[in-house]
Structure formats: structure tokens, C-alpha cells
């Protein structure tokens, strides 16, 4: 019998974070990954090798930019630099090239340097941005604390209150009601109210939209407000590609006597008398452990790996009714001859250090959203462009470059009988055309590309309906409501079975908080000491 202390289903970064903490505290950990490459949606693969480019290109096939995990202390706690992880600073973190005319807004980690850049394109918003960062920065000190522990009713507001007692008043005297209204407002309104320049509005709105919900959704104001945290931790890119994070965690687990196995798809969680005792892979091999942790999607875990026979009807229905949404976006991973030279900022020496925000206006994005709500691909997609080969030659060693272009609002389920496999090339070209609109030099500079539609994302990563956040990040599915109230503490109705994925609080992105919090719960339940980084 294959016996171990803890089995982690899936090698996504949250599951590996859980595995690392358990290994650190003496557990013998076994990670089983369904794909042939570990890392889940934080993974880098070598593609497009040829006689001309024998090294090929290091292409991220999931998340690329690492922001939130640098605010958690997880990397330091697990000492991942010992296991091969090296980060490169992205500074400016992101840039907004003016869609017509000249000029670019650089958002640097340093606030003053950012304000100086804003002054050249949108001088009317210099003070507005300063006030915006100050307001949301105070709030997010408490929000981050709430993210790094199991959610409980009132925990968010409790942590925010503690933060204000510790660090000063949340709101100015007499502005409490207006301040609370911002928190409960939509990020579209928050951005519209905060800024005057159409360029600042478009830039901040497009970055906020990366969390998922549409700009008019209530209680999403902090998706824009999280901008304040960029000036705390900055953004970083792992040297060699995004997947170097998960490779370092694999190395850490193995150094502590554990094992990470690829090409081991789990078919079933083995349950006896209401208690998880192990797993069976598709090949029929069985593994046993006292602790089972699923890093897979909550619906895949509970509806397929556990199954209706081990859940009462009401619980099965609640899991089935979780709002997964109708897709999110799509991305093209391009090998290119050269970097974009943006018409707005010819020869700019900084623009390729970070993300490039290619969304001409708020109305432009609203038009794309309008197509999305009709279950149509956007006629003109908003694009987030990433050119990591500028700061990391490891990803393109033969004098060429990588260009990733993520675009949003692309519905998973399409209208009019359309199917993603039939239109993927056409929609990919639309995204590349946005890049060439901004940087005409990129015309005919494409060497090859790897296309990921919402359907491709589902197939590759098991992210149902192509939602890269697992389930919608709307307020009714956040904190103690995520994924459902009965499972918000990373525990399930099946004893000894835990959840650790982005399906859980606090949600998606390269964060690691769900994995960290799940490990806290497991270690507490098993009466082992757990020293948080607090």
C-alpha cells in the first residue's frame, strides 16, 4: 500500500503552498498532478524550438505577473530562494501608452515617481491619485490581514477596524458614510469618481478588471483600490518564467522527504464511513493518507472525485449552483522578432519592464463588455501586453522575444451556435491586431503563437468554463461565502478532506493565501504547531 501523511491533489501553486507548510512541519507529502508538467496555472513550458532558435521560447501557460504573493510573507516563510527561486523586479509595474498622440503613464513602485509620470499626461489627476492611494492603502492593510486567515462573519470589518486603531483613522472626520459607500460601490464608479482624465480612468479600470467581475458589480470597489498595494510590494517576474515559483516549491517538498508526481490524474477520492482515506488515480493505483487536500476546482472535487453518493442532496445542489460564470478572457503567447515600439512613446526605455495596458477608453471596454453579455467575442478586445524577454533574457535566448497578450471579455458559452475551436484563430488575430494598432512595427513580426481560448484554458488547467479565478469573485462568493458558507473554512463535509484552491477564500491570482490558510486549518486540526509569518 502507498501510505503517506498527506496527499495533495493537483500541483497548482496554492496546493504546493499547503504541501510546503505541511512538509515544513514534518508531514511526508505526496503531490499528484494530472498533467505531464507540474505547476497548474503557474507553469512555464518551452515551445517553438527550431534550427534557427534551438533554445526555443519559455512560455508561461497560466499566470505570469506575481504581485499579491509578495505581500504575504509566504516566500520568505518557506525560504524558496534556497530552492532556486529568483525574482526580477518589474518597474514600472505597468504602463499606459496614450492611444492617440504622444505620451505614456508609467506606474512605478515609487509613488512620487508615478505622480511625476501622471503629471505629464494627466496633470489634473496628480492629487487625485495621491488621495486615492492614501485612502485605499489604509483600508487594504486590514483587508490583507483578513485575506491571510480563515474567513469568519465580520472578520473583514474586524481586521479593518484593528488596522485603523493601529495605523490611524480610516476616514477623515465627517466622511465615514462617504468612505463606506466607496467600499460597497462598484469599481467602475470608484474609478469614475476618483479621476478626471480619460486616460487615468481607462488605465485603472482595465487593471481592476483583471479580478473578474464586470465594472458595475456592487462591493467591488477595492478591485480598483488594490492599486495602492502595488506601491507596497511592486510586481515581480520569476527569472526563467512564472513556473519557477512552483518548481521551487516542488524542490522544497522533495528536500523535506516528500514527492511530487506528474502524469498522475486522480479519478476518485477514497471515502470510508464519511472519512477520506486516500485517492485512486485513473490508472487504478491507490494511495492512502490521513489528510487529503484538493487543489482542484471545488466542483470537480466534490461532484466528481467525491461524488453524489457521499454528499446529501442539498449539499450537492449547493456546490452545483456555485456561480462559475461564463468565461473570462483568452490569451495569445507569442514568439516575436522584436519588441513593440509604441507610437505613443517611441523608443521608451521603461515600457517593457512591466505590463502594458492597451485599452483606449472606458467606452471601448464597455463595448467589449456589451459583446460579452450577448455571448459574443469582443469585436475590439482590451489587451494586457507582457514582454518579459526585455527583463529576463532566459525566456528568449536567441535574440528574439516573447509577447503575451491577455484579453477580456470572452464568453465560454457562445451564441449563434459558434464554437471556440472554429473561431480561435480569428479571435487570436484580433488580439494581435490591437498590439499592432498601438505598435505598427509588430506587423508581420510573429514567429509563432500558442493560443488559449476559454475552452483551451478549461482543457489545459481544469479551470471550469475558462474562469481563471475558479469561481466568480463577486461579493456573494467572497470571504465566508466562498465557495459556499459550509466549506469556507477549507474543510468539507467529508472528514479529513480539505480544499486549498482559488475556489476558496480569498480567491484567484498568484497569491498563495488559500494554500497558506488551508495549511493553518490542517495543522490546527491535527494538533501540530503552526507558526504563521504574522
UniProtKB/TrEMBL annotation:
Pfam families according to UniProt: Amino_oxidase (PF01593)
Record's GO cellular component terms:
cytosol
Q: From what superkingdom does this record's organism come?
A: Bacteria
Q: Which InterPro entries match?
A: Amino_oxidase, FAD/NAD-bd_sf
Give the Gene Ontology MF terms in alphabetical order.
oxidoreductase activity
- Residue stretches making up the Amine oxidase domain: 15-300
> Which SUPFAM superfamilies does the UniProt entry name for this protein?
FAD/NAD(P)-binding domain
Subunit annotation: Interacts with COX5B; this interaction may contribute to localize PYROXD2 to the inner face of the inner mitochondrial membrane.
Functional summary from the UniProt entry: Probable oxidoreductase that may play a role as regulator of mitochondrial function.
Kindly provide the name given to this protein in its UniProt entry.
Pyridine nucleotide-disulfide oxidoreductase domain-containing protein 2
Q: Which organism is it from?
A: Gracilimonas mengyeensis
